[in-house]
Design goal:
With about 350 residues, this protein is α/β, with parallel strands linked by helices. About 45% of the residues lie in helices and about 25% in strands. It has twelve helices and 15 strands. The strands form three sheets. Strands 1, 2, 3, 4, 5 and 11 form a six-stranded mixed sheet that branches. A five-stranded mixed sheet has the order 8-7-9-6-10. A hairpin with a 3-residue loop joins strand 3 and strand 4. Helix 1 crosses helix 3. The longest helix is centred in the N-terminal third of the chain and has 37 residues.
C-alpha cells in the first residue's frame, strides 16, 4: 500500500468517526431545540457561538489550519440552527393585537420561523400561554417615552409565566392616512394610548382630536374602514403599508429615540449553566414585603450587599389590597451561582412573596 492509499484509508476511518460524532451532536441539537421551544428562546445565540469558536481555536495544534477549522465550525453551527428551525417550525407565538401591531413586528423579529396568533389584549395573550394554547407570548414591558406597561407588570406578579428574554425595538411612528389625503385635511387621529402620548407634541400643535384604539394596527384598519380623508392613524410605516395607507408625516415621536422593550413569556424558566460570573447576565424579581418601617430597605440592602446592581425598581398597587404594593426589580449580575442562591434564601426570609421571574443574559 503506497502513501496515498494509506492517507486515504486514514481519512475514511476519520470520516466514519466524524459521521458518528455528527449524529451525536445533532441529537444534542434536537434536545436544545426542544428546550428553546419550551422556554421561548431564539435559535441563534451569538455569545454561545463566539465562545465555541474561541474554544475550538485553542484546541488547534497543527499550524495553518485554524482558519479552516473556524470555517468548518461556522458551517456546522449554521446546519445545527437550520435543523433547529425545522424542529421548532410548529412553535406558536402570541401577541396582543392584529397583524401589523408593534408586538407582531417584534414577534416576527424574535421568531422568524414561528406561527403567530394575535389576541385581544395583553391578558388574553398571557393566558393563552398559561393554558397551553400557544408556546410563548411577546408583550411590551415599557417604552422609553411613555414608561412602564402596568397591565403587563401586574400579569408578571399575579401570573405563572417566566420571562426568558427581553428585546429592545426601535419604535418609528408615522401619521398614516388614506391615499390622496393631505395633512391639512386631518382632524382626528386614532392610535394606541401610548402612541398618542409619544406623539403628543404634533397632536397638540395641530389641535387634533384623538381616539384611543387597542393597538396601532387596529387604528390603521379603522382608518381604512372609515374611508374618511379627515382621519389618520399613528402607526409604523410597515403597518400603514400593510393596510394600504400612505404616510403624511414620518418620525413624529416627541423624543428622537423611542424604544419599546418587549419580553418573551413562557411556561418554563430558563436555567443557564451555573457559573461564578457571567458578563451581561441579569435577572428579574417581583416581591412583596411586610408593611412596616424598614422592610423594603432591608430587602434592598441585601441585594446591594451581595454585589448586585439594581438597575430598575418599580412599585405597583396590589389589586384588592388598598395601600399595599408589590415591587418589580431588574438586577444586573448572575443569580445562578452560589452567591445568587444565598441572596434568594435571605430574601425569602424578609419577603412575604418572592418570585424569580426571569434569568437573562
Amino acid at each position: 500500500m503506497n502513501e496515498l492509499d494509506t492517507a486515504r484509508r486514514t481519512i475514511n476511518e476519520i470520516d466514519e468517526q466524524i459521521t458518528s460524532l455528527f449524529q451525536r451532536r445533532m441529537e444534542a441539537v434536537r434536545q436544545i431545540a426542544a428546550y428553546k421551544k419550551e422556554n421561548g428562546l431564539p435559535i441563534r445565540d451569538p455569545v454561545r457561538e463566539s465562545a465555541l469558536l474561541d474554544r475550538c481555536r485553542r484546541l488547534v495544534t497543527l499550524p495553518g489550519v485554524e482558519g479552516y477549522l473556524v470555517d468548518v465550525m461556522n458551517k456546522i453551527m449554521d446546519v445545527s440552527c437550520s435543523w433547529q428551525e425545522s424542529l421548532i417550525s410548529g412553535r406558536k407565538v402570541a401577541y396582543s393585537g392584529i397583524e401589523g401591531a408593534y408586538a407582531h413586528i417584534a414577534a416576527r423579529a424574535l421568531f422568524p420561523e414561528a406561527r403567530y396568533e394575535g389576541f385581544h389584549g395583553f391578558e388574553a395573550a398571557y393566558r393563552a400561554v398559561e393554558n397551553g394554547q400557544v408556546d410563548c407570548a411577546v408583550l411590551p414591558l415599557e417604552n422609553s417615552s411613555a414608561g412602564e406597561v402596568g397591565t403587563v407588570l401586574d400579569l408578571i406578579f399575579s401570573g405563572s409565566l417566566y420571562i426568558n428574554q427581553v428585546y429592545n425595538m426601535s419604535i418609528r411612528h408615522a401619521l398614516m392616512a388614506l391615499p390622496g389625503a393631505q395633512l391639512s385635511d386631518i382632524r382626528t387621529v386614532y392610535s394606541h394610548p401610548q402612541a398618542l402620548s409619544q406623539c403628543s407634541e404634533l397632536i397638540r400643535q395641530h389641535d387634533w382630536t384623538t381616539v384611543e384604539c387597542e393597538n396601532t394596527a387596529v387604528a390603521a384598519r379603522k382608518i381604512v374602514e372609515a374611508g374618511d380623508a379627515s382621519v389618520a392613524a399613528l402607526a409604523s410605516p410597515e403597518t400603514g403599508t400593510l393596510y394600504g395607507l400612505c404616510p403624511l408625516e414620518d418620525h413624529i415621536s416627541n423624543a428622537e429615540t423611542n424604544t419599546t422593550r418587549f419580553a418573551v413569556f413562557s411556561r418554563s424558566q430558563n436555567h443557564p449553566p451555573r457559573s461564578s460570573s457571567k458578563s451581561g447576565a441579569s435577572f428579574i424579581l417581583v416581591f412583596t414585603v411586610e408593611n412596616k418601617a424598614g422592610a423594603l430597605a432591608q430587602a434592598l440592602n441585601m441585594i446591594g450587599a451581595h454585589g448586585y446592581n439594581m438597575k430598575a425598581v418599580r412599585s405597583r398597587p396590589m389589586k384588592g389590597l388598598p395601600w399595599n404594593y408589590y415591587f418589580y426589580m431588574e438586577v444586573d449580575g448572575n443569580i445562578t451561582n452560589e452567591n445568587g442562591e444565598m441572596l434568594l434564601r435571605e430574601l425569602s426570609v424578609v419577603c412575604d412573596r418572592l418570585k424569580l421571574v426571569g434569568i437573562l443574559s
